[in-house]
Each structure stands twice: as C-alpha cells, then as structure tokens.
Design brief:
single chain, mainly alpha, Growth Hormone, Chain: A, 17 helices, 79% helix, 0% strand
Length: 419
C-alpha cells in the first residue's frame, strides 16, 4: 500500500507562519514608535525656525520643550495605556493608538504654528506610550521561560527604529521639513491596517482586570508593584539603568564634536552603529546569554559591560577606539529584557499590562531627568573656566550610576533571584 501524502507538515508550517504575524505586528509597532521620534529629529531645528522665527539657540530651547513634553506624556500615560489594555484588551488599545498617531503626524505635517506642533507632541507622547501594551501582549503569548527573550525582540525592534528613523529623516529632509511627518503617518496607518488583520485578542475573562485610576497613574502603579515581594529592587535597577543609558542621546553629538571634532555625518554613523549593535544583541545574542548565565547573571554581566565601556569612552582620546568600544557599550542592552523577564514572572497574569506600564513610566521619567543632568555635567567640564577639562565626564557619571544599579541588584536580590 502506498503511503498517504504528508500534507499535515505543510499545513503545520502554514499555521506556524500565521502565528508569527502578531509578533511581527508588535515589533513593527515598537519600531514605528522609535522611528517616529528619530524621523523628525533632523528637521526639527529648521521646522521650529520656520514656524516661529528666531535664532538657532531659541529653536534649541523649543526643541528641548518639545522633547520634554513628549517624554512627560509617555511617563504619565504609560500606566494608563497598560491599565486600559488589562481591562479592554491589547488589540483595541494598540489599533486605536496607531490610528490616532497617524492623524497626529498629519496634523504636525500641516502645522502652521509652534503651539500646534507642541500639541502634536502631547498627543504623540500619549500614543507612543503603547510600548507597555506591546510588551504586555508579548507576555500574554509567551511562556514564562520565553518572556525575557521575547522582550529582547521588543528591544531589538526599538533599536532598529532608533537606527532607521534618523537615517530616513535625514534623507527625507531633502524634500522639505514636512516630508518625515508624512512618512511617519503612512507607517503608523499601514501598521494599524496590518494589525486589524492579524492581531488576535489575548485578554479574556480569566486575565481581565478592572481599570482603577489609582493604579493607572505612574506613582500609583509603581507603589502597587512595589508592594509585590522582590519587585522594588528590580524597579530601582531598571530606573537607574535608563538614567545612565540616556547619556548617549543626551550628549553623544556634543561629546563627539568637542572631543574628536567629528562631523555630523560621523556622529550619525556612530549612533547608527550603536543602534544596529543593540538590535543584534537584543534580537539574537541575548538568547544564548540567557541560556548560559540565567536572567540574574545576564543583568550582572550587562552592568559589567556597561561600566567598562562607559569608563573607556570617558577616558580614551582616540575616536577610532571609541568606535571600536561601541559594540561593548551596546552589550549593556541585555539588561532591560532580562530584568523584564524576572519581574514578569513575579506578577500575576492580570497585571502584566500594569507592570509594563510602570516600566514605561520609569524609563520615560529617566529620559526626562537624565538629559538635564548629563548636559549640565558636560557643560561644567568643557567650560573655559572648568577646573578640569573632561568632555567624557557625563560618561563617568553614567558609569557611577551603573555601579549603583549593580550594587542594588546584588544587595536587594542576592537570595531571591535564581540564575
């Protein structure tokens, strides 16, 4: 008797490929969030001057206001988005946010005043706070032992957006200050359509949680999570990591120009190198690292890499060697997904959105506070009256913070986290 054709295998492969589509959507959503920020950075000085006139210095002040507003909205609304997704589902929150984001970019593309641009950044910060919901969706569809690696994919997608955004924004600037906004709108709207087709809801009656405003504000969410056994030290480590990490976007361009006399093209390429390396590490290398070291060991190793590379960047006077150090610096990117994996296993299934919302707020708060400290430190140590000339001083500050974070991890979780 002839054997029957093996059709099940092909069908199984088809089902497997379809099951990956929601993962692709989540990664695209996070990447578009990151790209939306980077796309408009190259044109913001010219656009602000176009709308409000004034000098470049005045435009920089407005640029700082716009960036702080965006980060503040992410900080305030991260837990709200996470809480709403725990109550109403991940799918509607993600899709509605993408549509509103697309419309917001259209408004900014036609904005005729700086105040309308500011309003656009308010709305943009709120819609970009959906990274918490995206991470919660990843937690929903992943087994506990898979979550750290899946969170690494989210980090890789953000890193890819961090690379592609500024590069595309710089190219599109040739077509005018509004071109990047139109592309950002098209990407957000296209991804919303893709998500409408492929995204399945993961919140059911079994893991649905009532929405409470007292837990949907940043401080309330952090307090609620702080009551969970063993979570508070990890939240502190997570927050400290992002304060130190923000030294790169805050002062890298100023540092490169002051220390090595880098041209803007070199600065852009160096940031792209950092972003590409970060994406490769979080998207692929983190899996064997997690397997070899465990989650806690991975966090410790990431801190050691960060401390060594930050000190090296601060002290080395050769631009070539600093570029060589960039992959080592990017190895610190293994810290957030490993920490997320640990904390995700410590909270209930109906609080995954709340957890990711609190983490989004913690990182957003760090991104609000850190640039102020890093740029002030840079100014103090590069001023003509500075007692010590040290352009790399912000990186030494970041290394000190990483050391504090490592100590907090070891002291606070020594006997609690299993490698």
């Amino acid at each position: 008797m002839r054997p029957k054709p093996q059709r099940i295998s092909l069908h199984g492969q088809r089902r497997c490929s379809i099951s990956r589509l929601p993962l692709i959507f989540i990664m695209l959503t996070v990447m578009i969030d990151a790209m939306g920020i980077g796309l408009i950075i190259p044109v913001m000085p010219d656009l602000i001057q176009e709308l409000g006139g004034g000098t470049l210095a005045e435009a920089a002040i407005w640029g700082g206001i716009l960036s702080t507003t965006f980060a503040a909205m992410q900080f305030l609304f991260g837990p709200v988005m996470g809480g709403l997704s725990d109550r109403f589902g991940r799918r509607p929150v993600l899709l509605v946010a993408l549509v509103v984001m697309a419309l917001d970019y259209v408004v900014m593309a036609v904005a005729g005043s700086i105040w309308l641009l500011l309003a656009g950044r308010v709305v943009g910060g709120i819609t970009a706070a959906t990274q918490s919901t995206a991470s919660a969706y990843m937690a929903d569809i992943s087994a506990p032992h898979e979550r750290a690696a899946r969170f690494g994919l989210v980090g890789a997608a953000f890193g890819a957006g961090f690379v592609l955004g500024p590069l595309l924004g710089g190219l599109l600037a040739e077509y005018g200050t509004r071109a990047p906004f139109w592309l950002a709108a098209a990407l957000a709207f296209g991804n919303a359509i893709f998500g409408w087709v492929v995204l399945k809801e993961t919140v059911t009656d079994a893991n649905r949680r009532k929405f409470e405003w007292r837990r949907a504000n940043p401080l309330g969410a952090l307090r609620a999570l702080g009551r969970l056994e063993g979570v508070t030290p990890l939240l502190l480590v997570y927050f400290i990591y992002y304060i130190g990490f923000a030294v790169y976007p805050a002062v890298w361009s100023y540092f490169g120009k002051e220390r090595f006399e880098w041209a803007p093209a070199t600065i852009g390429l160096s940031l792209a190198l950092f972003g590409v390396t970060m994406a490769l590490i979080q998207g692929g290398l983190i899996r064997p690292i997690l397997k070899a070291l465990g989650e806690r060991g991975t966090v410790i190793a990431g801190h050691l890499f960060s401390i060594a590379s930050l000190i090296g960047i601060a002290m080395i006077t050769s631009g070539t060697w600093v570029l060589i150090l960039t992959p080592l610096a990017a190895l610190g990117g293994i810290i957030p997904p490993a920490l997320q994996g640990i904390m995700s296993r410590r909270v209930a299934d109906d609080a995954q959105g709340e957890l990711q919302g609190a983490l989004t707020s913690a990182s957003a708060l760090a991104m609000i506070l850190s640039p102020l400290a890093m740029t002030y430190t840079f100014a103090q140590f590069t001023d003509a009256q500075a007692p010590i000339y040290l352009p790399g001083a912000p990186f030494l500050l970041a290394a000190t913070l990483s050391t504090i974070g490592l100590a907090a991890l070891i002291i606070g979780t020594r006997a609690r986290i299993r490698a």
